[in-house]
Structure formats: structure tokens, C-alpha cells
Amino acid sequence: MKSPMLLLxxxxxxxxxxxxxxxxxxxxxxxGRMEREGEEFLTISLPGFAKDFERSLDQGYIDESSFRxxxxxxLQKSEYLSVQxxxxxxxxxxxxxxxxLPWHEMGPVPLFLKGFMSDIFHPIYGYLLCEAYCGRExxxxxxxxxxxxxxxxxxxxxxxAKIDEPCSDARIAKAMTQFVQTDQEVAALDRERxxxxxxxxxxxxxxxxxxxxxxxxxxxYEGNVIPKHGPGATADxxxxxxxxxxxxxxxxxxxxxxxxxxxxxxxxxYQHLDRVTILExxxxxxxxxxxxxxxxxxxxxxxxxxxxxxxxxxxxxxELYGAIERDELLSAFxxxxxxxxxxxxxxxxxxxxxxxxxDLSEASDRVSISHVADLMARSxxxxxxxxxxxxxxxxxxxxxxxxxxxxxxxxxxxxFPLEAMCFLTSIFLGIEQGLGSRLTRRTIxxxxxxxxxxxxxxxxxxxxxxxxxxSLEGRYGFKVNHNKSFWTGKFRxxxxxxxxxGMDVSIVRMxxxxxxxxxxxxxxxxxxxxxxxxxxxxxWETAKWIDDEVLIPLLGEDRYPYVLPTSPVLGRHAxxxxxxxxxxxxSSLHCPLVQGYVVRSVIPVNTLDDTGALLKWxxxxxxxxxxxxxxxxxxGRPVAVSIKLQWAPPF
Length: 651
Prior knowledge:
The protein is an alpha+beta fold. The protein has helices spanning about 5-20, 25-35, 40-60, 85-95, 115, 130-135, 140-160, 170-190, 195-220, 250-255, 260, 305-325, 330-335, 340-350, 370-375, 380-390, 415-435, 440-445, 465-475, 520-535, 540-555, 610-620, and strands at about 70-75, 105-110, 250, 275-280, 285-290, 300-305, 355-360, 395, 400-405, 450-455, 455-460, 480, 490-495, 495-500, 505, 585, 590-600, 640-650. It folds into three domains: about 5-160, no CATH class; about 170-435 and about 440-505, no CATH class; about 520-650, no CATH class. It has 22 helices and 18 strands. The strands form six sheets. A four-stranded mixed sheet has the order 6-5-8-9, with helices on one face. The protein has a four-stranded antiparallel sheet with strand order 10-11-7-12. Strands 13-14-15 form a three-stranded antiparallel sheet, with helices on both faces. A hairpin with a 2-residue loop joins strand 13 (about 490-495) and strand 14 (about 495-500). It starts with a helix and ends with a strand. The relative contact order is 0.11. Residues about 75-80 and about 95-105 have low confidence and may be disordered.
């Protein structure tokens, strides 16, 4: 198997050529660190370097605490930073000289990636090279090289940050402990929150969401919400079609959503309720807290909900999504499925400096019961429903079953919409503080195009960023990730896209290790995707290296054709399109075909008939028939994925 280190060396060589700098020493340095630290250098140490680099970009200089663990450039005595130079820079960059000590023997720039860093920061003084400090000497060519070098450093240091590898047991145990501690902290913060904080949250929430909550409240009261089963796992381990034959229904849920109304196709089948166990609160099934891969340093903690809860959560989620998407004002502030508006605002913010990008840590785990209660305080039926579909306890590895102070963790269908609404409410409370006067609908409308929330990715005006951060953290107990939040420099990041001074500096990330044989289907799919991402990012030499060293030896030259991105074949993308002339023509479709590997995923056998099948039909949304004619025979998520050699269209 080709080592990720070899890929990194190829990336360094190509980026060095692009930026007109030598990376020979960087390649040797990587090899040495890998020998001592193994792959943790790629997955932990390099992302740590990137974190300090992005912070330096944002603040406009490299401080003494940055790049720990990486050697710095040694200075000659004549190059020491003088107090006069420091004062001159401080006056220009609006940084007090007293807050930044002069460098002595070691310069600010690390030796690793020095060629790229020297195009971005002054190699001796450490300040960000820019027009404000360099004057006319900062030419357009220097600016272009600076942007290329910024993207190069991010590509090198972050390429392996999110590779899909399981964490160590110790790191998983630490994450579980953090889950429990966060919940305890949420409970403590709830007790400390003042009456004024609760009232303000409810008031601004009503300004923002009062109209849509009133409509959903009526729908809940009249029983006009339609539940839905998702394809994912559940705490009671029901899969696919099995979920339509539920045998558990919590008493709390039954008070708002009677089992007879939501588990039966109609009341003609009332006798089937005899097999349903109504669970008292003390007997309810807890959510199952598990870890899934996120980064090498920290797993993602999610909570798997019981089937009954997830079923009715989907009903309320559909109402919330639909109401917000149809509302002209709210749809400008909150996104659920389209990340592009956030990305576009991040681009604008990087160019103008008027918009900040904020990122929240532990976002879903810090939305408390009281946040949701205040959010919907004036919509009693909706609030009762939202609380009824919430699981009240969790089964955490190493801690057993614990009560929950948070509303829900990642895994609940309502986590995403409710956290977005709570964050937006808190943001406008911060803006209200900055304005010094109470918000009105007219005031809120004036912030369209300046405020937006997508999950834990937030856009706010720079003029109000300190008040917004104070509202999120100080008043309402959320946690801003300051390492991934930007507002002082020209770097902005939101929803997977990064920009510097109006230029896209987003990178390609490796998600899985390279495959060793065709049986490693997920790795083959990932490697082909990685190759094509490098190709479209302009890194053609790296794409060719993946072809020559990984994919062609594995798949075969004649079974790895050039195809369009829309083709089902795992093939090479190219600006000239698909392979021409075709190897074969389809006799039935009258279109060209190429031979290659196609992804196959077999849906598990999971039959459904009788009452459950009729209920599934009644719960179907839309007028179109079921896409899969065998949906009553097979259902659920595929347990495995494979690839098969066959003839298929190249487009």
C-alpha cells in the first residue's frame, strides 16, 4: 500500500513548483518526523501547525506562542527586531507594541515550509505582508504569490486532518467523559441564567419565529403532522421496514401523539394496539451514545434515538423545515440544505472585512431544555410536542444511564433546526446589545445578507461580533471555537469553503487510506474521488501520481477510463471530457459504453406486509410512486459496498 507520506511528498513538490520555492528540506523534515511520530504527525501535528497558521493570518502577525514543536529560523544579531521597528509596525497594524515583545535569537517564522511562509509573513519581524505595511512594494505579483502560498500551506497541513481512522480507546474514553461533563455544565449554566435572560430570549424568539410557530402549533393541535422513519440506526435496533411494526410507545409521547393515530393505518386495525407496550417514563429506552470517526485526535459523539422518538421527531422537523423555507425573512437567515449562501457571505467577508465567520464547539450538546422552552414559550402545543419527542436519558459507555440536561445530541432529527433557531435568537440579542435599543421586525430585516446560520457555522457583521460572542458565550452558554472563528484579518471559513482576500483557498482532503486490493471498495471509491478532486483543483501532477502509483496498477489501464463527473463509472475526469471513440455502443440505449468499475450497494432483505405495509403507503410524502418497486422486500442502509466491472455510459 502506498503510504500517505508519499502522497504528501508529491503534493509538496508540485506546490513548491507552483509557488517557485524549494521544498527539498520540507520533504526530508516530513520523513524524519514520520519516522519518530508515525502517522500522528500527519493527522495531529500538521493540523496543529495549520491552526496556528490560520490564527496568525487572522491577527496579522506570528506571536511567540505559535508553531510550538517546530524549529524556528535562527537570526543573525543584526537582524534582531528593534524597538523602533516594532513601534513603526505597531502603529501601522493597530497592535500595541507593549503587547508584542521583540524577537531575540529566534525569528518568528518556522523552518518547516519556510519558502511558503516567507511569501506571507516578514521572515524577521513576523508581520503579515500587506499593502498597509509594505506600501507600493506590495505588488499584485506579491499578492498572488501570497494567496498561492496560503493555499499551499493549508493543503499540506490539513490534507490528512479528517482521514477516516478510528481514534484510540483513550481518546474515545476522554470524549465520553467530555460528553458527560458538558451536560453537567449545561445544567449548571441553566441554573445561573437570570430571569431577564430568559425573558429576552423568549421576546426575540417571538419576533423571529412567532408567526411560523403559531402555524405549526395549530398543526400539532389538530394532529396534522406526518411522521417518518429515517434509514439510520435506532436505539432499539430496528432496521428498515421493521420500524413500521413498532411495539414500544412512551407514555409521554402518547399524551401528545396517541399511538392509535400514528401507529395504525386507520382505526379499523385497533386490535393491533394490543401488541404495543406503553412505556412509563422510568421504563423509557435511553438514547445509545456511541463514537464515530471524525479526526485522529477526537471522535464524533452521537446519540442513537429510539425508533418511536425518531419517528415523531421527523414529523416536527418537516414542519419546521417547510415553514422556515417558505418564510422570506427566515430563509434569508437560516439554511438547512444549501450551504452556498454561507459560503458566498464568507467570500464577501474575506474581501470587504465587514462580515465575520464564527464556528461553535459542542454546538448540539450545549442547547439546553431551557433554551428550547424559552424559544417556544408562546406556543404551548408545539413546545409540549417538542418536549414529548425528546429522550430524557442516555446510556454512556463507562457511565451507565444518565439523565440529560441538553435538549438532544447529534442524532436527534430536531437537533439541527432547533440549534439553528437558538443560535439565531442569541445572535440578534447580541446585535440588540450593540445597537443599544430594542429590536423590531424592521431592524431585523435590515440584517438580511449580513447574518446567516447553517448548523454551527455562523455569519455576523464584524461591527457586532464582540457583542454576539458575549451573547452566545456569556449569556446563553454556547461555546465559540476561537481557533476557527475569523473577523480581524482577510481569512474567512464557512461550510467547508475558505477564502483569503476574495480568493478561494479551499483544499482537497484525503478521507481514507489508499486501497491495497479491489476488495477495499470504500478505499477505491475514495482514492478515485481524491484523484479527481486534485485534478479539478489544478494539481495535475499529484492527480497523475495517484493514477500511476495507486489506481492504474490496481484497476488496470483499460478498466480505468476517462469519464464525465456524471458517469456511474469509477474513472478519470479530464477537461476534454470522456473517452472517444467509445469501446462499445449500447444496442438498447444507442449510447457509447466504456468498461470500468461501478459502485454496487445491496439493500438488506427486510420484508414488510399487512398493517405495516399499509401504514408505509399512507405515510409516503408526495404524489410520485415509491422509487424502488421492491421497497417492501428490501429496506434500510446497505451493510456493505462493493465495486463490479461492467459496461456503462461514460457520461
